[in-house]
Amino acid sequence: MSEHPIKDTETVEATPETPYVLGDVSEERSLQVYRDGVLSLPDNTGVAWLAAAGEAFRITTEREREGLLCWPDLVLKDVFATLAQDDPGALRSMLIQLAATATAWAEDLDRRTAHRG
Fold first, then answer.
1. Residue 85 and residue 45 in contact, taking contact as beta carbons nearer than 8 Å
2. Which top-rank group of organisms is this from (predicted)?
3. Looking at the chain, which runs of residues are DSSP E strands?
4. Which pLDDT score, from 0 to 100, does residue 102 have?
5. Are 17 and 110 in contact (CB under 8 A)?
6. CB 82: neighbour CB atoms within 10 A?
7. What integer pLDDT is reported at residue 30 of this predicted model?
8. What is the C-alpha to C-alpha distance for residues 100 and 61, in angstroms, rounded to an integer?
9. Which alpha helices (DSSP H) does 37-87 contain, by range?
């Protein structure tokens, strides 16, 4: 795992919504395993995705500069950055980052809609 700026993540809670969202993620993951079993598929990631990753980064940067940044921009930027990884360690780190971005979006949605699971 890469060096993280927060040394003791056991004592840090991102937002009050985090436990609810991660609980929902855990429940969904359990349902996936029940429905599909434990999957083992090829990654098919790497250099073929570099151009798409660069374009997603460019669009996200432009939209942020214009004050138009939205959740789909961040998620798609992370998706394409993840797909561009060919090193298993870097790929795993990016998958975790992507999951964290999706979690942040769900948390924001919960705050805006007063949804709790």
1. yes
2. Bacteria
3. none
4. 98
5. yes
6. 22
7. 98
8. 19
9. 50-65, 71-83
Range of the domain at 61: 17-28+45-113
How far is the C-alpha of 32 from the C-alpha of 94, rounded, in Å? 21
7 DSSP 8-state letter: S
Q: What is the largest CA-CA distance in the chain?
A: 44
Say how far residue 37 (Cα) sits from the centre of its chain: 22
Q: 9 lies in a domain? A: no
Judge whether 90 lies within some domain.
Answer: yes
Structure-block tokens of residue 94? 């990016």
Contact 83, 52 (CB under 8 A): yes
* Four-point Cα dihedral 74, 38, 17, 75, nearest 10: 0
> Could you list the mean pLDDT of each consecutive 10-residue stretch along the chain, which spans 117 residues?
58 84 97 98 97 98 98 98 98 98 97 78
Overall domain count for the chain: 1
Whether 39 is in a domain gets the answer no
Q: Kindly report, residue by residue over 53-81, the tens digit of the pLDDT.
A: 999 999 999 999 999 999 999 999 999 99
36 part of a folded domain:
no
Q: pLDDT value at position 91?
A: 98
